[in-house]
Specification:
The chain has 379 residues and is of the alpha/beta class. Helix content is 42%, strand content 12%.
Amino acid sequence: MTRHYLDFASTAPLRREAASAINEWLALGITADPGRPFHEARVVSDAIERARTSLATLIGARPRQVIFTSGGTESANWASYAAHVQNPAAPIACTAVEHSAVRISSERLAPTVLNIPVDGVGRIDLDALGELLSNRDRLPALVHCQLANHEVGTIQPIAEVVAQCHLAGVPVHVDACSAVGQIPIDAGALEADYLSLSGHKFGAPTGIGALVVGRGTRPAPLLVGGDQERARRAGMEPVLAIIGLGAVAESIGTPNALETAAERARAETARLVKAALAVDGVVEYGDPIDRLPHLVCFGVPGVEAEGVVLGLDQAGIAVHSGSACSSESIVPSPVLQAMGVDADRSLRCSVGWSTDEADIEAFERAFTKVVGALRELGR
């Protein structure tokens, strides 16, 4: 059976550019600690710095602002840790729809986590944020706010969030893991204190990401024991993963590449939305307009999400659900619960660089049949 992968928002297949760059590097046969002074080490160090520059260019940052990490989870944990070290008695604030790496790292460190509510499409309540920041006696050590939601795709008014927080003297961490590689980002203009990203979300290797620090921000190291990454993160650099990330960043950072890919993704997800909403009772979650172009989320009343996921899997289609049964968690998605929708009946579809016509057509053919069969069984 031909398989159709529609779960790019979880992880994207490795792009050809990354595989090619890694294979070319392996063919060189060079191995060395980039911190050493001899020739081989300088070659490795140069490769790392080229990748750093490519990634910085993609997101509108300076190379020295980019600190390579193992991925978005480490970067989010590091932002929470760095802020807590600077102000250990203060709470940390985050929106109700943040990724679990953000929420749990905050809960683990801070004496209190202040919850910032969202509306029905998952967008932060700016008035609530302003009220929180008006309490000068209880200012948070950090405010977390994602750039765009990982389950429903809603894009946050992040410039307004950063401006409000900085006016109150509060640093901001922007989780951009779902947005980098999908929409243009200008970290320099955004002026966030911390920005996290994850390579595997846009076709780079797994196990590589970055924490991008604002100008003048000097985070306390989360990992200690060596002087790598300008003494900001200890541990031998994952050279192959960094090279792969740099190759992808360079490829999609060419003029109009992101815009062209986003236009294609929006057309593909529009067809997924049309096919899903043709089924009686199905609704779209999140902002239908101001959202990431590559992912959409639906509510499918009358059936459990796990049944839809398994039914589509039997038809050769891989999708995701926010229900507890279809995830590694034992509780339904806090994101969808915060939005006031039924997480046990949600379905997320996402496209990417290798999505083709056959993948979209497969969903268009299968979705109505799968939901209809499940509803018939439930009668």
